[in-house]
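Example 4.3 (complexes with small molecules)
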Amino acid sequence: MQAIESEQQEHTQEILKHFIGDIRGDHPGPTVIAVAGIHGNEPTGVEAIEDVISQLESLKEFIHGRFIGLRGNNTALEKNVRFIDEDMNRLWVTSILDKIRRTSFEDLSSTERIELKELLCILDPIVYSDEEVIYIDLHTFSGTGCMFTITPKESRHIDLLSQLKIPMVFGIEHTLIGTSMEYVEDAGHVGFAFESGTHGTVMAENNAVAGLMTLMVNAGLIPANKLDQFATYYAYLMEKVEGFPHKIDFVYKHVIEDGDEFVMNPGFSNFDPVEKGDWLATDKHGKIESQTDGYILMPLYQQQGYDGFFIVRDSE
Ligand SMILES: [Zn+2]
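Answer. The structure with zinc ion bound is encoded below.
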């Protein structure tokens, strides 16, 4: 244990660089943790959290609980790339986390494992305490279309998120092995991913701010009447999600393999309806047609990534 502590001390600067802010309210309540930039080409979430922190600073006397905003992959954020050596959003598997904890910083095999170990120095003591934790993993996407959340189909998640009216996609988390949400869920907390909009857009930032602030009111962190902009945020969200499905089940994912030369057909946005047989993308083996009816989600319009597109359907 002492060895770990001295190792942490040597890395204090790097560990602290992950903090965007840490607001402790004057009253007891849940701990809300928002992490952004686990993918380094998604700095929009970081900017949204900076905005949220600056608003919460002046509300401390009314806040019940704590809000922690963290940067995920600092090295990749500096270079504006999804990752340096490996996808940091696929490493949060119990056995890999255990290996990362047992390995010294110097002996870790990738930039992302070093970044992850730094984050664990902050997260482990909170996630494995008795505190009630709500965890949000902020992302943006390469395509266009409506924001959405990725969440387990459990009543405590649905109760918290349904008030936001943002489309909730259930089941994708089972197809994305090793996300940070999995780590928080395994420890018994509520965790979800918030895909707030297109990479680098003002709308993705505004969506993330409105979503986070509304969530904190719903979670009891901020009394609605103490947040001047609450009605504005709520109306904004309602307008943005108008006409989109509310609860959606994952149906299908197109997996890209190395060398496939996958190219998504242009023009697809989140929740565009597709029918079985529709031509969606092309790779070196030919046309990729939809295998089922549903809505398209997260069509891939960037170089890095192995998820070509998802198909989802209204949840029963
Ligand atoms: Zn991402």
